[in-house]
Design goal:
There is one protein chain. The chain is about 35% helix and about 20% strand. The chain is of the alpha/beta class and about 200 residues long. The chain has a single domain, classed as Rossmann fold (3-Layer(aba) Sandwich). A five-stranded parallel beta sheet has the order 1-5-4-2-3, with helices on both faces. Helix 3 links the parallel strand 2 and strand 3. Helix 1 packs across helix 2, helix 1 crosses helix 3 and helix 5 crosses helix 6.
Amino acid sequence: MAYLTETYVRRRAQGRANRKGMSVRSALKVESRLDRTRYDIFLSQTIKDEELVLGVYAILTEDLSLTVFCDWIEAPETDRANVTPENARYIREKMKLSETLLFLDSESADQSKWMCWELGWFDAAKGRVGVLPVVLSASTPYRGREFLGLYPLVSYEEIRGFTVSRPPRTILETYNRTESMPFSQWRRAAAGTLQP
């Protein structure tokens, strides 16, 4: 399986920011202030990965034409470091409006106060979760984490684009996945709109 690499994702972020004539941080602040009634993807991520997040956001919105909710793109004025019931309610309402959750797994993800909560809430409420690893380089193996092995992995190859591994039936199958499907097919299957 091939995964998105930090170099590729950072290049996409910088390209998007350059087209707007601004820094990555400024591009994130003006990116997507539309308050939608529905999102294809809820992007679970950490602010520590701002450049990676803008790159993944660009890939999902530009290449796949998806609507993506990312809290600090949509609501940059909210202090995510301050975990409050109001912030949690806001995030929960946005998750209710989203079809699927992509967990952006990076080296910084395990330090996030929000990501595990988002994953748990979304899994219990909707069950439509995928893990999107971003690795340092193409030769860097994905480290994974035990609980993330419950969910399908989203991989990326230039020719095939995004693909999603089939969800494992047992924990033993987690690291021996060989079957996959195109990302668009997985999204339709997860949303219950894929016809047999």
